[in-house]
Structures are given as C-alpha cells and as structure tokens.
Amino acid sequence: MKKIKSILALSFIALTILSCNKEDQADQSNQASLKVTPEVLNKLRELSLNTTDVQVITNTKLDGTTEDAFLIEGDIIVTQDQLNKMDLHGGITTEQYHTTNLVSAPRTIKIVGLTGSGVSALSTNMRAGLQAAVNRYNNLGLSINFTLTFSSSTSGANIVVRRQNGSAGGVAGFPSGGAPYNSVTLYSGLDTYSTGVNAHVAAHEIGHCIGLRHTDWFSRQSCGQNSNEGTAGVGAILIPGTPSGYDATSYMRACFSSSETGAFNANDITALNYLY
Fold first, then answer.
1. pLDDT of 228
2. In the chain, what is the straight-line distance between the N-terminal and C-terminal CA atoms, in Å?
3. Which residue has the higher pLDDT, 29 or 140?
4. Do residues 18 and 256 lie in contact, with contact meaning Cβ atoms separated by under 8 Å?
5. How many CB atoms lie within 10 A of CB 13?
6. What are the tens digits of pLDDT across the range 172-221?
C-alpha cells in the first residue's frame, strides 16, 4: 500500500495521508509455515481485529533470526503463539485492548534507540522524534514510565527501536504476559519528514507495544477506507470520556498526515490515564 493517500472526504480533500505502517516492509515467505485460514480470520474477528488485509510475512527478530508472523492492520505483528494466547472475552475498546494484552503496572519500561554505523541505527530525526514521544508519555505521570537510552547495546531493553529501509511508517506488536512488545521498527522514509511526524509514529508504535489499538479500527477512516469489521459478538467497550465515533486527531489513528506534531489529544490522554 502506498504511504500517501488522497482522502475523499471533503474535510480532508487537500490533505496527504500517510499510513502508520509499512505493509510491504517484509517479503512474504514463499515457504510460509503460517496460513491465513478461516480459523485464523475467525479468531481475529472475535478480537475485533481488522481482517480485510491479513498477510503472512517473514519478520526479522532482534537477534537476527526470522519467523513467520501475521501482519494485521498494516503495522501490527502477531505470531501464531501470541494469537492463540489472546483473550477473547475482554472485548476491545475504541483505543486499545481491554483484555490480558496490556502491560502489568506499575513498572519502568527501558527503551533503547539503536545507534552505530549499521542500517539499524536511528537517524538524527528519528532520535529526536523518539525522545519527544517518550517525554510526552512520561509527562502524563502514568503508572508505567519509560527510560530512553541511545546505544548500540540492547542489554536490559524492554523495547528496542530500530531503523529499517522502507517507506514512511513503522511496525510493532502487542504486549504478552504483562510485558510490552519488545521492538519498534521505524522505516527510513521518515528521515525526510519533520520531527513532529517522527514523534507521532514513534509514539504510535510504542502505543501498540503497551496495548493500544487504532482508534479507527472499526473503519480505518483516516486511511480513506470504510472497513468496519464489527464487534463479532464480543462487544467494543468504550473508555469513559472518549468518543465512540471517529477521532480525527488521535495519535492512534491507523493513518497519519505529513503535518503531525506528535501531540496526544485530550481523548488519548483520557484513555492512557484510564489504562495506566
């Protein structure tokens, strides 16, 4: 999927939209051990995850090994084991999982932004955006807080943020066993965008790591789509104080614009404080 989309809605007709993802960031495995079966799609529907474009990709892990995984909603990586363990009866909020797929709190989450001379090293722009994103989370005084170190060593890291060649956007995954997803990949196309856009994408992907969903999972309206998968009989639990409809400025929208500042809106802050 191209990173820049024209939104047909009149209020967005002049706005370029970039997806918070890189759907083609990894080649699909020709010999994939995973298959997008009806059973897999049914499980995703029960979790109220978008099943419009589920792919099997080859994901490179932090240790350099690869694994087949599902790519869902364009920027969420889920392995078969993680999918099997996801709770079905907690429901989904408009902002995030309200199931076992959250981070246990209180806790400090150590983030390492990779440095060095290799392709995985974050650019100056990415580093500035990541620092701004972490500052915004920490300024909320949540029951989880983040430390950020820029280093070539990943020792002790809970989340490693790395760069990879590709279009603008990034990918991450959901928490497991009370721990955040362990990596965020930012794509090199972000190098040409502002620090605000880099902060937005970094905060968005960290949001997935701690359990947040796309706020427009029910429509992907921010991408100019209309792909409501419904609640599949398990409900969609609305966080008190947040809107039940489309939130045009949430940092957890599925797609983002080139004018993003990286700021959280009032509804994002309400949701984060409700969870953590």
1. 56
2. 34
3. 140
4. yes
5. 9
6. 998 888 899 999 999 999 999 999 999 999 999 999 999 888 888 778 88
pLDDT of residue 147: 98
| 42 Cβ neighbours under 8 A, 6+ residues apart | none
Give the residue among 270, 258, 268 at the shortest CA–CA distance from 133. 268
Q: What is the pTM of this model?
A: 0.79
- CA-to-CA separations, 157 to 148, 152, 215, in angstroms, rounded: 9, 11, 28
Give the ranges where the chain is alpha helix by DSSP (H).
38-46, 80-85, 124-138, 195-209, 266-275
Q: Is 132 helix (H, G, I), strand (E, B) or coil?
A: helix
**Span 45-64, pLDDT tens digits:** 777 777 878 999 888 888 88
CA distance 179 to 60: 20
Strand order in the sheet with 107-114: 55-60, 66-72, 76-78, 170-173, 183-187, 159-164, 107-114, 144-151
Task: Name the pairing type of β-strands 159-164 and 183-187.
Answer: parallel
The Cα diameter of the chain in Å comes to 50
The whole-angstrom separation of Cα 74 and Cα 204 is 13
Structure tokens at 133: 């994103």
Handedness of CA 97, 135, 20, 16 (dihedral sign): positive
Instruction: Answer yes or no: are the C-beta atoms of 166 and 187 closer than 8 Å.
Output: yes
Tokens describing residue 41? 């799609």
Q: Indicate the length of the chain as a whole number.
A: 276
Supply 137's token pair. 């989370």
**Rounded Cα distance, 218 and 204, in Å:** 17
Among the listed ranges 51-55, 118-122, 145-149, which one has the minimum average pLDDT value?
51-55
State residue 20's pLDDT score: 57
